[in-house]
Amino acid sequence: MKNLLKIMSSAIVILSMISCGKEQIKEPAKVGGDSGFINVSNGQLAKYPVTGFAYKSAQVPSQEWNNWARMAAPVVKDILNKLPDGYVLEVRGHADASGPEQPEGNKPGNLNISRDRAQAVIKALASAGLTSSKITYKGVGSSQLLSRYDPRSGQQRRVTFSVVPK
């Protein structure tokens, strides 16, 4: 009887070791694939909007741009270099809620102003040596306002970046 218990105990230990060994050999699961990269990239990019645009202006504010370029340009460059096929970096211009979305009379319209801001930032990126066929732009007017700020405040006038499907 003692021998049978020893054999059974040994068998349990051996089976446990084999089972643990198999668990360690398993290939690690892929976490998120492209969508994981996209989510992480967009999280990083959300930290670096270009801000400080004057009312109705698409001119990139030089002081804010210099600060942005020092901190964010390396992040943007790294993301551009790692973009999976089928994705682009979208530069989005935003406007505050002052004025109409479409042109009216002598008012250019928020959509045009925000598009011009996005294009101006792309030109500034190119001047800083960041060019890529994987960069696109879009003006969204005042359709994506930041809820923590007054809709008409200057904080709404910004350019953001996002990795999106092509």
Descriptive report:
The chain has 166 residues and is of the alpha+beta class. The chain has one domain (34-165): OmpA-like domain (60s Ribosomal Protein L30, Chain: A, 2-Layer Sandwich), CATH 3.30.1330. It contains four helices and four strands; from the N terminus they run ααβαβαββ. The chain has helices spanning 2-25, 33-45, 62-82, 110-127, and strands at residues 50-51, 87-93, 135-139, 158-165. Strands 1-4-2-3 form a four-stranded mixed sheet. Helix 4 links the parallel strand 2 and strand 3 (135-139). The N and C termini lie far apart (72 Å).
In short:
With 166 residues, this protein is α+β, with helices and mostly antiparallel strands. Helix content is 46%, strand content 13%.
CATH class categorisation: Alpha Beta
End-to-end separation in angstroms reads: 72 Å
CATH structural fold name = 60s Ribosomal Protein L30, Chain: A
Average the pLDDT over all residues and give the rounded result: 84
Main pleated sheet? 4 strands, mixed
Spatial extent as radius of gyration: 26 Å
**Which strands sit side by side, in order, in the main sheet?**
1-4-2-3
Strand content: 5-15%
Tell me the overall shape.
globular
What is the CATH superfamily? OmpA-like domain
Low-confidence stretches: 3-31
| CATH architecture grouping | 2-Layer Sandwich
Q: How many helices in DSSP terms?
A: 4
Following the backbone from N to C, one meets helices and strands in this order, namely HHEHEHEE
- What is the helix fraction of residues, given as a range? 40-55%
